[in-house]
Design a protein that fits this description.
The chain is 28% helix and 15% strand. The protein has six helices and six strands; from the N terminus they run βαβαβαββαβαα. The longest helix has 16 residues.
Length: 192
């Protein structure tokens, strides 16, 4: 089963860049529905996605109808108007090959007519009454974690595994277990 993230009219490039990075980390495909509040070649977007930009699997659509026509599967709408917590979703119960986590624009959310047509599949991440909602990229990360935990994607590692093909400093699964802390420099030690 493939996890997909859908951004309906995303406005803030830094959020979308961060979501791109999360999609790479959780082995998810990203779907962007126009209009977009930015150009995809913006430096902010690539900076937010950091060194993972080349690994991002994404598509862009003209509108929601275009997206729906090309993507059959089970849709989950994340909205402040949802009546259920996403913790109630059993992603394993889906009989579809693809599940789609759909999020709205930062300022306006998902269009009301789309939500009204899909009330049984609208969910709200619970928060206190002090805020309307969480940041979009935080919501996506929460949902990606919930879905991937349930689906047990073998590509998601519960520990860091060195990958020599990446030009990054990975320490590996047993790094902290085997480190001699007496030999560390000041910045890697607890500040007292």
């Amino acid at each position: 089963m493939k996890i997909n993230v859908v951004l309906y009219h995303p406005e803030i490039p830094q959020n979308t860049g961060n979501i791109m990075r999360s999609c790479v980390g959780f082995n998810a495909k990203l779907h962007l529905i126009k209009p977009l509040g930015f150009k995809l070649d913006e430096k902010h977007l690539q900076r937010s996605a950091v060194d993972y930009y080349e690994y991002i699997d994404y598509e862009i659509y003209e509108d929601f109808t275009d997206f729906k026509s090309k993507n059959p599967g089970k849709y989950y709408f994340l909205t402040r108007y949802g009546h259920k917590s996403p913790s109630k979703i059993n992603f394993k119960d889906s009989k579809e090959d693809n599940i789609y986590l759909i999020f709205g624009a930062e300022s306006t959310g998902i269009a009301y007519d789309i939500l009204k047509d899909n009330l049984n599949d609208c969910y709200r991440i619970p928060t206190t009454n002090k805020i309307r909602s969480l940041n979009l990229s935080n919501c996506v990360a929460i949902m990606l974690f919930l879905a991937s935990e349930q689906l047990n994607d073998s590509n998601i590692l519960s520990y860091e595994e060195p990958d020599e093909s990446l030009d990054l400093e990975f320490k590996g699964k047993d790094f902290i277990d085997n480190i001699d802390v007496s030999k560390l420099d000041y910045k890697h030690r607890e500040h007292k």
